[in-house]
């Protein structure tokens, strides 16, 4: 063994040390490289997994046409094995269509030569899947130059969604076109505001309403349908609707087509799309509402003026209206009623005030009345008898809105009047049945309606026959058997016909077989019926015959006087009294309320009765005066007072004919001894005569003056005057004077009576007249 020197040993040690260090470094480096390789392998595995699970397939196409890529390519294209070349992508019934492959090859060659990217859609055979291919040159470092890289995406779902969205877009476009057409054709103005609240769309109705040229003109100028005014700014209203997110509506005045109209303007928020709006013309509706409000106010005002009590309840059964008559009728304070009490409470308060009928079970009675609100028929009517004899007629009318209208009519007086009327009818029937005259009432159809005992006895008719209400021809046939001349029965039928149909009064006389004579008359009644009366004048006929036998030698004037006095006998007063009495009963309403025309007829009857009674009195006064039996009172008479009263009584008649009536009464007129009533009659007759013959607009003078021994009264008028012949006949008791103001001709009894009354006092009455100059009558009466 060789011994090493120290330097050699040192060198060897150094070499070993270096080798050991190098070994350690190599080991460390190897370990580091191993870890890097493991990490690279892990990353490669991860990247391979990511590429394998990616939605797109990556395929490299080398310059020689070789394919390198994902193993899923065969599955996507429906191939049995992984294609190795570009041409293997198409096979019989499998893979790509030849047209798609050819186009793809052209795109790849172009990308390989020019580096241009491309995009294409391909579809495998026997498959509904669609693939999108994006290609271009492969990045440097990935493959050799001339290599193209392809990215295949499965676009089947995307295409389906695109198709669906396309169809939806077409449908929405058509709907939008239809909606636009509908908006454009709408007769009401419609518009749309953008997010800035400016007009972006208006329809033709809007353009027409604002009288613009077209929609573009409206949008450009920003013409608003409703004029901006304090409290009604259209843009502010649209902004408020957008902020609240709620549709708003308001009624505003606007000028549409040159006319002022009321519009219901509606703003509809559309979120970020802006605000839409439309306007409806409600002018007619507003006018109808105003008219209905005025009608309701007028109706309530009318109901408040009714004498009947009225109460109206709303659908919730609270009191909504009452009139003054209701408040007075039920003695309820207005403060309580103004609170709108419920129906049940009102009935309870009416019960407390004693204004409800006495009932055993008030609660059940109240519940039954509550059913008025839902009554099926149109209305209910009841009669309430209240304590104290008050009689109420109650009408309950359900209202269309679910409310109730109650009307309370106080019929206490009507019931009392009906009872009094029934009593009067019974009295009238008893009076009618016991009259001395035979009386029958015929209806308008000629049937006998009423008759008294005397009527039945005169014609000797059975009650059974009369109870059948025979017609006048049947009655005339039965009555003809009692007449001395049966042919006169036709007169009865004719008189009834004239009275019922022609409304004329007729009279006559008839003789019976038993020797009795009757004076009959048919008088039309206001109700369309006819009154047939028969007065027994047998005694008068005998007296008349006796007087005629004894006085047939008298002058014609005496015979006329005798006949006239006979006609003014008791028998003439009796029917006049009956006519007046029945007419007064009709005017008093005992036979029911008369129509205005009927009331006028009754008044005419009463006036005629009064005139006839006055005429009879005048005739009797004349006959008494002629016989020297006119009674006169002899006492002190204030002539001034009598003249003043006569003048006052004549004022109305003079005013009615517009006659200037002048009265001059001297203080010297004083008093005299005489009959005040007869002196007043003298003045009344003379003044009436002057009024009658003085034309409208004329003058009448009444002057009274007194002297020591006499009293003078002068009555002058501006009438037509009288000829000497007329003056000679003026004081003839039975001469006739015609007056256009009166009904036909009348007996001139005024002047004859006046002269006889004056001469009975020892005075004188003179007449002075000239045609066309008027007439003056002078009365002179002695004071003693």
UniProtKB/TrEMBL annotation:
E.C. number(s) listed in UniProt: 2.7.13.3
Keywords: Kinase, Phosphoprotein, Transferase, Two-component regulatory system
Sample GO molecular function, one term: phosphorelay sensor kinase activity
Catalytically driven reaction(s): ATP + protein L-histidine = ADP + protein N-phospho-L-histidine
Residues in Histidine kinase domain copies: 567-784
Domain of life: Bacteria
Gene3D superfamilies in the cross-refs: 1.10.287.130, Histidine kinase-like ATPase, C-terminal domain, PAS domain
PROSITE patterns: HIS_KIN
InterPro entries for this protein: HATPase_C_sf, HATPase_dom, His_kinase_dom, HisK_dim/P_dom, HisK_dim/P_sf, PAS-like_dom_sf, Sensor_HK_Regulatory, Sig_transdc_His_kin-like_C
Full protein name: histidine kinase
């Amino acid at each position: 063994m060789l011994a090493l020197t120290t330097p050699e040993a040192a060198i060897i040690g150094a070499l070993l040390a270096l080798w050991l260090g190098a070994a350690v470094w190599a080991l460390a480096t190897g370990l580091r490289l191993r870890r890097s390789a493991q990490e690279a392998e892990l990353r490669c595995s991860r990247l391979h997994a990511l590429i394998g699970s990616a939605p797109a397939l990556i395929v490299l196409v080398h310059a020689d046409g070789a394919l390198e890529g994902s193993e899923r390519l065969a599955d996507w294209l429906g191939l049995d094995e992984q294609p190795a070349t570009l041409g293997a992508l198409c096979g019989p019934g499998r893979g790509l269509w030849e047209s798609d492959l050819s186009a793809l090859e052209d795109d790849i060659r172009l990308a390989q030569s020019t580096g241009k990217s491309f995009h294409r859609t391909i579809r495998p055979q026997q498959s509904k899947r669609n693939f999108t291919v994006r290609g271009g040159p492969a990045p440097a470092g990935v493959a050799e130059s001339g290599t193209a890289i392809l990215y295949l995406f499965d676009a089947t779902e995307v295409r389906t969604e695109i198709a669906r969205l396309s169809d939806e877009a077409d449908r929405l476009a058509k709907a939008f076109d239809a909606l636009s057409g509908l908006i454009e054709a709408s007769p009401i103005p419609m518009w749309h505001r953008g997010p800035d609240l400016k007009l972006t769309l208006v329809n033709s109705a809007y353009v027409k309403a604002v009288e613009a040229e077209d929609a573009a003109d409206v949008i450009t100028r920003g013409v608003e349908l409703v004029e901006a005014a304090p409290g009604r700014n259209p843009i502010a209203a649209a902004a408020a609707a957008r902020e609240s997110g709620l549709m708003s509506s308001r009624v505003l005045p606007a000028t549409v087509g040159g006319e002022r109209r009321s519009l219901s303007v509606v703003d509809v928020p559309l979120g970020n799309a802006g605000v839409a709006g439309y306007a409806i013309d409600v002018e007619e509706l507003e006018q109808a509402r105003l008219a209905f409000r005025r009608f309701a106010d007028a109706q309530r005002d009318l109901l408040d003026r009714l004498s009947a009590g009225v109460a109206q309840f709303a659908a919730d059964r609270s009191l909504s209206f009452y009139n003054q008559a209701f408040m007075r009728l039920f003695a309820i304070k207005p403060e309580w009623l103004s609170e709108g009490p419920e129906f049940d409470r009102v009935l309870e308060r009416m019960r407390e005030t004693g204004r409800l009928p006495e009932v055993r079970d008030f609660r059940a009675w109240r519940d039954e009345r509550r059913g008025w609100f839902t009554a099926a028929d149109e209305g209910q009517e009841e009669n309430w008898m209240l304590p104290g004899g008050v009689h109420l007629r109650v009408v309950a009318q359900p209202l269309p809105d679910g409310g109730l209208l109650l009307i309370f009519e106080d019929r206490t007086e009507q019931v009392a009047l009906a009872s009094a009327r029934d009593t009067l009818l019974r009295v009238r029937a008893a009076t009618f049945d016991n009259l001395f005259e035979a009386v029958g009432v015929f209806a308008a159809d000629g049937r006998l309606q009423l008759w008294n005992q005397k009527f039945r006895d005169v014609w000797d008719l059975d009650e059974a026959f009369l109870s059948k209400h025979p017609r006048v021809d049947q009655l005339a046939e039965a009555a003809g058997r009692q007449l001395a001349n049966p042919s006169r029965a036709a007169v009865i039928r004719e008189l009834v016909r004239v009275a019922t149909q022609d409304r004329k009064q007729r009279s006559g006389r008839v003789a019976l077989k038993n020797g009795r004579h009757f004076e009959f008359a048919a008088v039309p009644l206001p109700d369309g019926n006819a009154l047939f009366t028969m007065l027994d004048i047998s005694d008068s006929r005998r007296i008349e015959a006796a007087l005629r036998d004894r006085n047939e030698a008298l002058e014609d004037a005496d015979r006329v006087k005798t006949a006239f006095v006979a006609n003014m006998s008791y028998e003439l007063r009796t029917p006049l009294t009956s006519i007046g009495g029945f007419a007064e009963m009709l005017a008093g309403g005992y036979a029911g309320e008369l129509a205005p025309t009927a009331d006028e007829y009754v008044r005419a009857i009463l006036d005629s009765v009064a005139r006839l009674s006055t005429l009879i009195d005048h005739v009797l006064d004349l006959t008494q005066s002629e016989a020297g039996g006119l009674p006169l009172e002899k006492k002190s008479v204030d002539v001034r007072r009598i003249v003043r009263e006569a003048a006052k009584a004549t004022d109305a008649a003079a005013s009615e004919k517009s006659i200037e009536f002048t009265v001059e009464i001297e203080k010297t007129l004083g008093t005299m001894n005489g009959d005040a009533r007869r002196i007043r009659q003298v003045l009344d007759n003379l003044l009436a005569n002057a009024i009658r013959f003085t034309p409208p607009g004329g003058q009448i003078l009444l002057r009274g003056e007194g002297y020591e021994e006499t009293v003078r009264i002068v009555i002058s008028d501006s009438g037509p005057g009288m000829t000497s012949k007329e003056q000679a006949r003026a004081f003839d008791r039975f001469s006739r004077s015609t007056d256009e103001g009166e009904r036909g001709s009348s007996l001139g009894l005024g002047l004859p009576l006046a002269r006889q009354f004056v001469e009975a006092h020892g005075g004188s009455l003179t007449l002075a007249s000239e045609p066309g100059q008027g007439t003056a009558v002078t009365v002179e009466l002695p004071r003693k």
